[in-house]
Amino acid sequence: MSNVTIAIAGRQYTVACGAGEEAHVEGLGALINGKLAGMGNTSGQSEARLLLYAALLLADELQEANERAKTMEEAQALDYEATAARLEALAGQLENADQHS
User: Fold this and answer.
1) Less Cβ crowding at N or C end of the chain, within 10 Å?
2) What is the rounded average pLDDT of the residues 11-18?
3) What is the DSSP letter of 41?
4) Residue 6 Rama label (left phi>0; alpha psi -120 to 50; beta)
5) Separate counts of helices (H) and strands (E) for the chain
6) Cα–Cα distance, 3 to 59 (Å, whole number)
C-alpha cells in the first residue's frame, strides 16, 4: 500500500492506493480538481456540495461515454452482419460460376 496526496479545490487529501497506482490516483485527483475549477465561482458552497457537483458531472460523462460505446458496439455488430451477408453472396456467385465452367 502507498499513500498519495492529491490537491482538490485548494485542499490536500491523503489517499491510500495500491503500489504502482500512485500516478493513476494523482490523475484522478487532477480530473476531479479540473471539474471543480471548470464550475466557475463556487464561493459559499460547502466542500461536500462541491464534491457532489464534481461527482455528478463525472457520472454524467461516464454515462454518456457508456452510451456512445454501446451505440458503437451495436453499429459494429450490424456492420459485421452486413459483411458476412456480402461474403456469403459472393461465395454463392463463385460456386455458381464454377458449376457453369
Assistant:
1) C
2) 95
3) -
4) beta
5) 2, 2
6) 25
